[in-house]
Structure formats: structure tokens, C-alpha cells
């Protein structure tokens, strides 16, 4: 067995007992993990859990990987990684089953508090108050998401953080950053299935990691299939390492280090990971570990069986090359230098048997806890409903409902609350005290469950944006004016001086300071580490932001134009916007996304798909400043908060002169607060961003016709007018017009819903509400194209005038007919 040479060498270094114990512990863990997969599948098939996707077949490779995983390191992986999580002590069997059952107590199911299906792993990196834990005292896993390759962009950022920490001398001396890094020695471990390497996200991240030279160890678990679709249809040359061979570094050129190993070959796996991680950790070289011949004994998931698509030969191979069977073979054949053996077959069988029992016991404990949670609700509801039955004329019918619930097989909360609702409907109009008690209990439970299933979409810490109070900009006597871009730039200068953990990056951000020069001179001043150019790759620009923000840095990820945010919307929506929610407050990534848009030229530099963005990105804040003073004030707020946000600077505003505040870097725009820019009595006009400035011109024109418009800038779409200032304005004007440059029924529909429904302003209106939006086609090129595509001053004037004409035709006779 030539493959044993590495281990034989090892045995010279450590005493045989130590070596033997390690191998046996590995075997034991592999067995426990396998038994968890086997039992997990049964739990789904018998109806206790809804869906299962397991890590069987990948155990041995993951144990080898985990040997190299150190405190402070990070994982960004996918649903097959249960054995890594167990091996790094961040998942036990009880938690594994708790997740399968959707246990909502985050103490019992720490990855997501039951919000994610099992197989989606995460560690708790912030505490109950939203404060960072010491990430150097634990092994970390960023929170998994289901979209295949969705872990890639974030992985890049997690690895890049080590690079920043290694090379950023200022941070090394600041105490708080010692809980994020030790001189950048941390590795980011990525895992992905062979089929998911077909996704663009994989290629984009791999190329960027090679360019950036970050310590990322990318493992591909190659089991030859993506559900039923074989490698033949997934990967060029049916081999990801062959496909990526051009990434291999050479003596002359930087690149990746590429390793190949086999998923059942324990000694080779151990040796490979040792080499792979060493080069990544020490030299900051990205590494690909292509783990071939991985198997999948139970097929893809509980949704089907692999006999449908694997032929007999493959199924036979899966049996013969089962990772645990091969591991067992290795142990039994092993002979040390002096003829020592590791274990006998009986001993190994006993380990397997005991693993089975451990798993069964842990599963039972998880189920008992899970039942306890719903059981308490069940018991309380039954008692309260029985009391209602006793006092109600409808007692017989109520008792029938109670009986139905009592007979239900393992009832869940849905069954309990559904029965309570049915009973309450039966006693509507009655006045008994038991009924009141049931109603009060139910309302309290609704709140509890809102929290249980809906908390932490946004930060709940003291650093939540709603807790960051505004500070007005101040102005000197000299009435100094400057281009908008200079106000932004000088404000960034202040922020970068104050917060050494801020880094910014994007296309053209570094050398030239951005396409609009709002970072001009920043790279010279703060260096290439903090102000850098990236490739054209919006998805991973966002991923850099997410990963670095998860490791204590404050990234400002720049997307060159709003229209290209679409390339990043997947990672914004799937990963960033869901992070706090999907971990139930266990992780955060306060990335600031900076972009510019709304109006300039042509189809792809004038878009304003705000409806799409705010609907895709609930969970992040969306700021829509109308000028750069406002934008800078928003950055000043956001840097003090611990939440992700998107700021869309008005693209046509960089060279517009604005008064220069004297307190740059200090003044703050409070998010969720609107600004009444012009007071008026006839009509409330609501707008934001670039179009706001056109609306402001129209308001001046309307004044000449005797129409007094209250002009309100919402400033932020998420959050939206938290004080309900708009409905207060409508109490005065009773007429509402919304001017928005998204397509019809885009952001304007959202704004209308906020004002009419959420703020209950419908009954304040004397005229029908009017929305002025862009045309549904993309905006045409040129100034006339803009005029006829987007809301223009004449559209806005005409729509406002029309409202007043309808209200008082004598005073405001039509000027168009
Ligand atoms: C973006 C996206 N598309 C499709 C799916 C559905 N899906 C889930 S797993 C999977 C196959 C993944 O195969 P592979 O990457 O080889 O991982 P394996 O399950 O084989 O370990 C697919 C298509 C998904 N989750 N995300
Ligand atoms: Mg696969």
C-alpha cells in the first residue's frame, strides 16, 4: 500500500497510540455522520421532517479537510458538509436532527432557528445583542444558502479579508481586530458539488481569487452528478481540475495550486489537505482540491431515488467504493513500522454499532425537545378551548374541534392555531370570559410567532439604522460651493481617516478614483489595499463585500452603474438580504453598496429598476439621495450602523454645484425620515433621487399658476417614512401625487401602498391619487429620448395641474383642451 507512506511518515513523528486514536476517532465520526444521514432520510420518509439532503459519501474527505481547519478560519459551503461541521465541533447530532425538524429555538438549532431546511449550516458569530463574538476563538461557518454556487461570491470576500488583515499595518495594532484575525493567517474553505461548478458564479469567483491571490481552499465534491444530470452535461472534459488546469500557477505566473484526490482514500486525502491548506495559509495562494470518486449512497435528496438515473454498474461502484467501507479496509490492512495494527474488524463493527445507537438517542432527544415546543402551545390551547366550550352555546361543535386536534398525529403549531381560529369563529358575538382569555392568549401567541418566524430581517442591535440619529450639515459664512463629486470625495476622505477598517473596491474605483472621480486621489492617500480596482464582475464585487464585512471590515462595494446591479442582484437578494434573517440574528454583514443611476444616457445608463430592487432586497436598506450632500450624509449614518445598505447616487449630479458642509464626515441623514423641501397647501408631491430635482422645477412653475405644492423627498425607500410625515402632509393638502422614474406600478406602487394602506391615508384624500412614472420601455438615448421616456417637467406640471383642474376648474382652467 504505497499510499500509506504519508501516514507511515506521520507515525514516526507521533507515537503510534496517538496516531491510532486519531484514526479511530475519525472512523467513529464518519460512522456517526453516516448513521445521521441514514436515519435522517427515514425521518423524512416517515413524515417527521419535511425534506432531507445529506452528506453521506462525503464523510472521509470532509474529515481530512477539517483536520486543517483552525480557529478563526471560515467555511463557505453547501448542504453536503455535515461532517465538516461535526468535525470542527460546530454541529452535534441533536442539532442536526433539530434542524431537520425545523426546531425554532436557536439554542437547540443554532444555524437558523428552524428557518432553513436541514443541511444548511452556520455558526453563531454575533451574540444576542448583535455584538461580534471573538471569531478567533471559534471555527466559523458563514451561513449556507440553497442556490447552487451561491456560496462562491462570499467565499472570495472571506478569503480576501485575510489578505487585508495581513497587509494592513494600522489594523494590526487595534485591539478589536484581534478578534477577527491573527495577521491574516486564516483560510477560507469553500465547498461545492461538481455540477454546481457549471454556474457562472463559480468561474467568476475562481478567476477573481486567482487574480487577488487570496487564501481560499476550494474543494469540489465530485460525485459525478447534479441530481440526475451527469458530468457529461456539466463540465468540459468531465473534469473540473482539467478544465481549470490553465489556472495552475507556474514559476513565472501567479495562479492556483491544483490538487486531485479521491473521496474514499483516507491517507491521500489527509496528505492532500495538509499540503493544500499549508500553501494557502502561509503563502496566500488559492487552492483547488478536486475530490474525485466521491459517492452518494442515498442519492441526491429525499425527493427521489438515484436508481432512476444511475445504471447498475454505477450503483455497484458506489457500494464498492463507499468511503466508509474503504476507510475500514484501510484500517484493517494497516501495519505500522513495527507491525502495529489500528483495530480489528470486530472493533470497527462495534464502533459502527455504537454510532448507530448514539445517533438514535440524539435523534430522540431532538424530537422530544421539538415536541416540547409545540406541546406547550397544544396543552394551553386545549385547556382554553375547553373552557370556552363550557361557557358557549356552541359547546358541542367546539368539543368536536378539540377532539379533532387531540386525535391529530403529532400536531404542529399550524394545527393548534387553525383549531383555535375555528373555535373563535364559532363563538363570535359571544361575551364569555373564557372566550376573552382565549383571544388574549391567541394574540400573545401571534406576536410570539411573528418573532419566532419573522425576526431579524433587519438588525435588532443598538447599531440598527433606526437608532442612528441624524445630525444636520452645517455651513460656513463663505457660502462655499463645489461639484457634488468633491463633496462626496472629501466626505469619503474623512470617513477613511476615521475608520481604518473601511475598504472600497470596484471597476475603476482605484487608480482613477471612479468613473465620476468621486474617489479621486484616495488610492494615493490610502493605498491599494483600501482603495482598489476590480475586474468587471459585479456578483463577486458584492461577494467581496459580504465576506469582508463578515470578518469585521467595513467594505464599500462599488457597482459602476445601477443598470449593472442586476449582475449582483442574485447575491444581494439570496445572500446579503437574507443573512440576519436566515441565521435568526446569528450573523451580519454590514456592506455598503455604492452605485449611481437613474438618469443619464441610453438604455443601460438610465435605468431605475427600483421596484425590482426593493422587492428583491428586503433585508437591506435602500437609499435614494437627490444630491451628493445627501448621499454623503447617508454614508456617514451607514458607517455607524451594522446593517447592509444600497446607496444610489444620482448619476447626473456629480458636476452640479452644491454648498459644501463644514462638518463633512460628521453630519448624518437619518434613514427612514423624509424631508419636506417645499411647504405647500394644495397638493403633496412625493418623489426621490434624480427625478426629485425635476419635480422641484415643476413645483416652481406650478407656483406661478397659484398652485402650492408640498414637496417631499422620501430619501430612503427602505425604510420608508417611519414617522408617517406624508400622511400628516395629506391631512393638510388631501391630494397626492407620486413622481417616480421606475416603470409604471414599480416603485410607485410600493410608495402608494406605503402611504394609502400602511399610513392609512386613503380617507384623507379628496382627489384620486396620481402616479407619474417612466414609460414601460427602457429609456431611449439622447436628451429627447430622456424627455420622452422619463417623467419630465411638463409631464409633472400637467399631472399636478390636472389634479387642481378637477378640483376647481374655474380657478385652474385646463390648458390642454
Ligand atoms: C441556482 C440553483 N439551481 C438549481 C438548484 C436545484 N438543485 C439543488 S442541488 C442541485 C444539484 C447540485 O449538484 P452538485 O453541485 O453536483 O452537488 P451534489 O448534490 O451532487 O453534491 C440542483 C440542480 C438550486 N438549488 N440552485
Ligand atoms: Mg454532484
From TrEMBL:
The lineage of its organism: Bacteria, Pseudomonadati, Bacteroidota, Flavobacteriia, Flavobacteriales. Gene3D superfamilies: 3.40.50.920, 3.40.50.970. Its cofactor is thiamine diphosphate. The keyword Oxidoreductase applies. Residues 482-656 form the Transketolase-like pyrimidine-binding domain. It comes from the Bacteria. One of its GO terms (molecular function) is branched-chain 2-oxo acid dehydrogenase activity. This is 3-methyl-2-oxobutanoate dehydrogenase (2-methylpropanoyl-transferring). SMART domains: Transket_pyr (SM00861). Its EC number is 1.2.4.4. GO terms for biological process: branched-chain amino acid catabolic process; response to nutrient. It comes from Brumimicrobium oceani. Keywords: Oxidoreductase, Thiamine pyrophosphate. E1 component of the 2-oxoglutarate dehydrogenase (OGDH) complex which catalyzes the decarboxylation of 2-oxoglutarate, the first step in the conversion of 2-oxoglutarate to succinyl-CoA and CO(2). PANTHER family: 2-OXOISOVALERATE DEHYDROGENASE SUBUNIT BETA, MITOCHONDRIAL, 2-OXOISOVALERATE DEHYDROGENASE SUBUNIT BETA-RELATED. The keyword Cell wall biogenesis/degradation does not apply.
